[in-house]
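Hey,

Quick one before I head out. I ran the complex with flavin-adenine dinucleotide overnight. Inputs first:
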Amino acid sequence: MTGSDIDTSVVVVGAGPTGVELAGQIIELSRRTIKNDFRHIDPRKARVILIEGGDHVLSSFGAHQSVKAQEQLTKMGIDVRLQGLVDAVNETGVEVRYRDGRVEHIASRCVIWAAGVQASPLGKQVAQQSGADVDRAGRVKVQPDLTLPGHPEVFVLGDMIALNDLPGVAQVAMQGAKFSAGKIRARLEGKPEQEAFSYFDKGSMATISRFRAVANVGRLELRGFIAWCAWLFIHILYLVGFQEKVSTLGHWAVAFIGRSRAERTFTLEQARGSLTNEREPRVPGTG
Ligand SMILES: Cc1cc2nc3c(=O)[nH]c(=O)nc-3n(C[C@H](O)[C@H](O)[C@H](O)COP(=O)(O)OP(=O)(O)OC[C@H]3O[C@@H](n4cnc5c(N)ncnc54)[C@H](O)[C@@H]3O)c2cc1C
């Protein structure tokens, strides 16, 4: 296989915060960090295709932020495809069914699924044993105080809960944990308990690239460099320990100001495995 035969396209499925951040990071890696690291391929030629079933990228941020984010992604060289649902993935790539009826096969040996997660199977198990319901993502439908129906002594928290369309984000998990700890303490001390969990939305953020992000805080919409600075500040703030904060700042300085990354990992097992497969194709039935 020659360098020009190697398929270097990456398909990211789902343009929520995870998909957008991933696509942005991958294109930056290919265009900046590893651009001179290979002899047989030119990483700068890698295509990054971001496929979204809805009308906008980052739809939860509102139409205006979404349009600006999409402009930015396109400017960075990411091929954004909207209104397309991926309905098949195999070793040759993905099949996309667009809303206007077109069906397209996009060739890629690297497909990243960022279109949602399933809750841990533990959720289903807990629900089955307690008589609670689960939603499509396997999350347990809890009472307003985060307990199982009929079991006020069992709390369900974080990504595993289905309640009032709360998003699967860290703040829901953290605030839910604080709420239930407060209830347990109140019970032990014989004090009145808070009846229902109420989530305080502190806002949402997504980085698009180095120096660019979008952030919604209440009615305030931030974009570009200011939003990116806010993203850095919040993430540093929530890190535990002074040492962690300083070392993270150091890593970021290397990555953002310089061209390098402290973490570069590839597994030899993977490389050896794919070489062996190419040289000695396995005979079916021989294990
Ligand atoms: C790629 C990605 C990016 C994200 N980015 C953001 C972001 O930028 N901001 C944000 O707010 N949120 C983000 N999230 C969501 C955030 O990570 C979750 O909402 C948060 O971690 C939920 O916390 P949790 O404690 O419920 O679950 P987790 O953090 O997933 O912790 C659950 C733990 O339980 C363990 N576990 C599971 N089953 C069992 C079992 N049967 N027995 C024992 N242990 C078990 C798991 O291994 C895991 O360690 C992101 C999620 C993903 C996947």
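The two ends are 26 Å apart (CA to CA).

Talk tomorrow,
K.
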